[in-house]
Amino acid sequence: MTKSRVEDTSGIHVWLILWKASKAIEQIAIRSISRSGLGLSDFAILELLLHKGPQPVNVIGKRILLTSGSITTAVDRLAAKKLVRRENAAADRRSRIVELTPAGRRAIARAFEQHAADMEQALAHLSRTGRSKLVRLLKAAAIGLS
Amino acid sequence: MTKSRVEDTSGIHVWLILWKASKAIEQIAIRSISRSGLGLSDFAILELLLHKGPQPVNVIGKRILLTSGSITTAVDRLAAKKLVRRENAAADRRSRIVELTPAGRRAIARAFEQHAADMEQALAHLSRTGRSKLVRLLKAAAIGLS
DNA sequence: ACCAGATATCTTGATATCAAGGTATAATTA
DNA sequence: TAATTATACCTTGATATCAAGATATCTGGT
Questions:
Q1: pLDDT (tens place) for every residue of chain B, 146 residues total
Q2: Is the Cβ of A58 closer than 8 Å to some Cβ of chain B?
């Protein structure tokens, strides 16, 4: 089971592999999602709203890893398609809550289901225990990154 | 060691974790690399040239996962900084070989060393065997992605 | 009540990337 | 040889994102 050749476990090598794998799967994801007429970020925002309920802009930004400016234009995009709506927050008038419209809810529910099926297939090579180990290692790797 | 709660090993969940970890480390990498005055793609191109020798444009694109147009502008950028040079290929006059200038070689060698140290630190939480497992799983996950 | 600093969002200008189309060269086939 | 198809790169126009700054609002101390 042990390779005779010395294995490269340098940080930069691990990072490179991680990056490539992520990019490769991202391509699959983009293709999958674009069939619903959405971009990756827009999908991520809608998915967040679907599963976590209405959220203020800055919280969305933190979760999806986008800057406030990017979220603003993304929400503009989604609002123009009538998939989300902005509400002024009752408690804090600086803050605006983004929520799904009924049409948006239908759209993301459908897109999510399709996307989940696609990603299931994309990771079909990996066993259940392999996936579980992978998740654990990725979480360990990401701990404490500022 | 086994969680009592049922673990989510759906493809979409694994993909989401992978994406987040990758993004988080990417942020570190971007910060690290930008200290050398380079962007991520430019760094990747220079690194490829450093370690694999001069390459035609389309080969660079395949390795770094960029389109031909992106490579063109990236090479323009790097050529403007005198870090790389384009040569017409002897064998195939459609093709142009990109190679490092001496200044480019110095710049990327230095940047690479710094970046390697930064990434080493970024992944410091992960043991040697953890890294090795992670790499194996990532490669397994990426197998057979179109 | 007032002021200073923190926070939330939006606006602006710049950048990297992509998709699609264009041109030149090579390879293939008749 | 001539025509067709494939390949390699570049150009163009559009898009998403970011960084930095502007505006509005909140919070805590005086």
A1: 555 568 899 999 999 899 888 988 888 899 899 989 999 999 999 999 999 999 999 999 999 999 999 999 999 999 999 999 999 998 999 999 999 999 999 999 999 999 999 999 989 989 999 999 999 999 998 876 65
A2: no
Q: What is the value of pTM for the model shown? A: 0.89
Gap from A84 CA to C7 C1', Å: 24
**CA B55 → CA A13, B42, B58, B108, B119, distances in Å?**
21, 14, 8, 16, 26
* Residues in A 68-127 with any Cβ partner in B closer than 8 A: 112, 115-116, 119-126
The b/e string for B105-138 (b: 16+ C-beta within 10 A; e otherwise) is bebbeebbeebbebbeebbeebeeebbbbbbbbb
> With b meaning 16 or more CB within 10 Å and e meaning fewer, what string describes A64-87?
bebeeeebeebbebbeeeebbeee
The residue in chain A having the minimum alpha-carbon distance to the alpha carbon of residue B3 is A132
Tell me whether A24 touches chain B (CB under 8 Å).
yes
* A69 nearest nucleotide via C1' and CA: C10
- In 3-state terms chain B splits into helix, strand, coil percentages (rounded to 5) of 65, 10, 25
Nearest to A145 among B7, B28, B146 (CB): B28
| A chain contacts of residue B124, beta-carbon cutoff 8 Å | 11
